[in-house]
Every structure is written in structure tokens, then in C-alpha cells.
Fold:
Amino acid sequence: MSAIDDAGRRLRARRRRRDYLLFAAFAAPNFLFLLLFAYWPVVYNGYLSLTDWDMISPAKDFVGLGNYTDLLTDPDFRATLWTTVVFVVGIVAGGLVLGLATALLLNQRLRGRDVVRTLTFAPYVLSGAAVGTLWLFVFDPNYGLIRPLMAPLGLTAPAMMTDSKWALTGLVLVYLWKNIGFVAVVYLAGLQGLPREVYEAAALDGAGPWTRLRRITLPLLSPVTFFLLVTCTISTFQAFDVLAVMTGGGPGTSTSTLSWFIYDQGFRAFDAGRSAAGAMIMFVVLLLITAGQARYLERKVHYQ
Amino acid sequence: MTALDPAAPTRRPGGRARRLGLYALLVLVALIAAGPLYWLASSALKTNPQIYAYPPHWVPTDLRWSNFSDAWNAAPFDRFFLNSLVVSVVGTAIELCAALLCAYAFVFLPFPGKKWLFLFLLGAMMVPGHVTLLPNFLTIAQLGWVNTWAGLIAPGLGSVFGTFLLRQHMLTLPKEVMDAARIDGAGHLRTLFRVVLPMSRPMVITVAIVVMVTKWNDFIWPLIVTSSADMRTLPVGLLFLRDQETYANWGAILAGTVMVILPVLVVFFIAQRYIIAGLTQGAGK
Structure:
């Protein structure tokens, strides 16, 4: 009796060991890639941010927190942070408002709305480098689309991307054009999941459309808004391709965001320490935003 | 009733003006989205005098296809296409295989501390690409892979998004089917490819297309890791073309831009269901 039990147990143990090994073998490639190209870089970037190094000389000088204190007391870097805030707020807030408006429109029973939905989403999947090139041409004050569009209004097209007063606005507009379809489609999915009965009840109570939007639609959509707020903020902080193609941080430093700064310091000025410190600052900011999201979601679960 | 009301009934007395207004808005949205793309496509077929004319030619009259050959001759576009194709196809194939195996392991195989390992995997999503730029460049340089296909592909191979979506989908597969496969004596690899893969086809297609488009469009990594024109991918090559041609020859630059955009646009219009589903995953969860 017990001999058979023993044999069974040994067999099960052997099978379990074999399954563990198989798990390890199946999961290993992906984990290896992530360890090597995502986790290790965080550690190594953290170390680089504590050094002064030109990426050529064999020795990296350890400077402690020197890069961080340098950056945070440097008025140019503060300007970069401010530019980043304007850039991110403009794109995220503008994207949410215009995306929601588009979604509300596409949620009406109109013929052709599916085609329009597809058209608005298309720019989101296109290469940022190509989109940037395309918009450089659209914004060209002499030959671009902007001139015939502004002429009937009696306006002369500004030199959008070569005038430091306008370049940041121009970039925000292009990123809005690229992202709105994404926001709209996510909001649209949220709108289509809203319970109709609430609206019928509100209509019976005599609530007007504005009241219903403010008191019912927006509160019910708040989880979607929150999701969009976090994902768009994270991706906009890192936005690089359109910016690199259209302005390269210029004219002057008028469009130099943190994302551009990290690239510029690392791969053009070859100042690894400053670049790495800038990247760590971005990392911490994004972590805080994500942690904020986690706390919010937790509250929602508890109080619902 | 206004456009701002999602539950507005569509039939109302006096609703005609409102509907007309809504259609006007719909046309406006369509024009804003597609207008710049039409401007690009039409201008890429104009002669230079037409491009630099004002008032503009809204419809190009004698189509100048040679803008495309100009672009092709000014920059090694054949190499750009080849590099982009290799990077997106090979990269996607490797990433997808790794993601499939990994997702399968998490769903169908036991391992101590599996839940924690999965959290660890998801954690990689928190790492912004910009934090990895310098270290990955140094790693690739150490491996001697700067300016090679391997160097272009390797850092993008880890999959969190794809593994997550595939795992979520595999969790919904009926357990009985797996058990039947096991009783038939199928090994895990066989089960994965003969049972799980066919049952997860829409999700696999979604992940494959989204990953491939992302790699095709990637800009900052190819910009950093390539150093000669013949190793550039299309988006970086476009920048190279612009520097070659300057703005005196917009025709060629715009033709080059069309060549970068067109493949993705075609894939998007064919597979938009998968792409939109994949890119908007996670919303409302």
C-alpha cells in the first residue's frame, strides 16, 4: 500500500519538477530581454547619473548628487521643466477636451460616423517622423496649407516652426492632431457602455443637456478620463519623434522639453551624467503619477 | 438637445436643423483628420512650380511621379525599406514567440511565486524608454552591435504589453480543452501550437500588428544606434532625405514621407479592427 503511495508521490514530485523547469524555459527569453534591456538600464542609468562622463574616456568620475544639484539650480534646466509642463498640459488637457467632444459627436446616430471614426484614428498610428515632416509643410508660411486657410480671415500665416513665439504652440497642435482620435475612440467605448435608464430618468426630471453632461456623463466617465489622463501624460512626457523632426528643441531652446534634453545631453553633447540625471527625474515624475493612479483606483474600489 | 448629449433621441420635432449642424461638425472633423493627409498625398504628385504656387493647386493636374524616383535616388530608400522590414518583421517574430511562450507558462504551468513574477514583469512597463537609452546604447556597443540589424532589434524584444494581453486571453480559454489535449498525451509545446494558438488567433493578430507598427514607426532608437545612411530605417531615413534635399525640393521630401506612411496606412485600413482594439486595451479596467 505505502509503496504504491510512495511511488505515486515520487511520480507527482517528478512531474512538478519537470513543469517548473518547463515554466522556466518558456518564460526565460522574455524575462531575459526585460532584465537586460529594461531593468538593468534603470540601475545603470541611476549609476551614470552620479558620474561625470563624456562617453569616451575610460574613467567615469563619481560626483555623487552633483548632476542633480547642478540641474535643479540651473535656470536653463528649470526653463526646460517649465516648457515640459506647458507642452504636456497643452497636449493632455487639449486632447481630453477635444477627444471627448469628438466622441460625443461620433456617439450620435449619424450616417458615416464609422468612416469618420476611422479617419480620426488614422494619424495616431502613423510614424511621428513622417507626421512631423508633413506638418512642417502644412505650416510653411508661404507654400503650406496654413496660408490659404488663414488668408480668408485676413490673417498672415506666422512662421509657425521657426518663430520661437509660435513653435511650442505648433508642436502642441500637431500632437493634438495625432492623438485626438485615440482619446475619442476610448471615450466612445466608455459612452457606449453608459446605462440609458439614468438619462431617461434625468430627462423626465427635466434636466437639460448641459446638466446631464455635467452631472451624469462626466462623473460616469471619470474612470475613463482618469485612464486617459495617466496614459496620455506618460506618453507625452516621452514624446520625441515629432518634436525632433520639427524643431529639434529650437528655435533657441523654446521647445526643449525634458525628453529632448535627455537625448541632446546624451547623444549630442556627450554629457552622460546630465542626460542620465534628467532621465532619472523623468522616471521619478512618471512613477509618482502612476502611484497617484493606483491610489485613486484603490479608493474607487473601496467606496463603490 | 445638443451634440453634447449621448442619449439624445434622434427623432424630435425641429430636430432637422440640429441634425444638419451635427453633420456639418462631422464633416469638419473628417476634414481636420484627413485634410493634411490629402495635402501630403496630392503635393507629393505636384511639380515644383505647382508646390510653390499661390493660390495653391488643390488638385494636382499633371501628376509628377518622378518625385518618388527623386527621393529614391537622393537617399538609399531601398536600404531604408529593407532595414525597416527586417527590423519590424524579425523583431516582431522574436518578440511574439517570447511573449507567447511566456504567457502560456504563466497560465498553464505551475511555478512557485508565479504571481510575484508576473508583477515583476508588469513593472517593466513603468520604465520609460528614455531611461534605457544610454545604458542600452552602451550594452549594444559592448556587444559590438552598433549600426547592425541585431543592434536595431535587440533592445525592443522584451514584451510586457503583448504578454499581458495574451495571458488575459489564455485565461479565458476553457480548461476542458487543455485537459483533453493533455489526456491525448500532447506535450506543452504541442498544446501551445495546436490548441492554444488557434484558439487565440484574434489576440495574436492584434498583438502582432500593434507590435509591428510600433517597430516600423520607432524613431529614437534607430536614430541613436545607426551611424551610416545604409543602416537607417525609414523614419530616420526621412530625416536624412530632408537634410539632403533641403526645402528647395519639397516634392521629393513629401514623396519620401508618403513612402513611410503608406504601408502603415494600408495595414491600418485593412486591420483597423485589430489595431484599434489593441491600442485601446486597458481602457476602463
About this structure: DSSP finds 14 helices and no strands in chain B.
